[in-house]
Amino acid sequence: MFSRILIYLLAAIFSALVYLVFGAFMTASAGLNAITPLLSFLTAILIFGLFSWLHFFYSLIGTWLLSIAAIFMYVTWPLYFLKTWLFGESNFDAYSLIPLALCISIVALAWYAHFKKLVLPKKVSFAISIPSFLIAAYLGGYFVTHYFF
Description:
It is a single chain. By secondary structure, the protein is mostly helical. The chain has six helices and no strands. The radius of gyration is 16 Å and the shape is globular.
């Protein structure tokens, strides 16, 4: 039971990390010149609002979607932070390894919980899922309407 909640918390931290980095990126740059940060940002909202708790209700589908989304979010943008460090374009900082560690732990724990058939009580599942869905729907809707329209 605890591993399901831990997966939810790690997914929320991973999404918040990309969300905050996206805000800093948009503040520091003159504009969005690549689509990869935007895809990573929208995937972070989907992970926080939908995929982080979908495995509470639908174990196999939720695990697959959370795993694919976490890997996609890592590959689209935070991987560039690690790449700049590996090729000597920037100094080492632990910030480059945090998204990798979170991605690996989310995917591993999600599949562990699926194979062990760990379940949460329905009241706990709904108490966790509804607020995160509402926050993500607000953030995603606000960003999409202001960015695209």
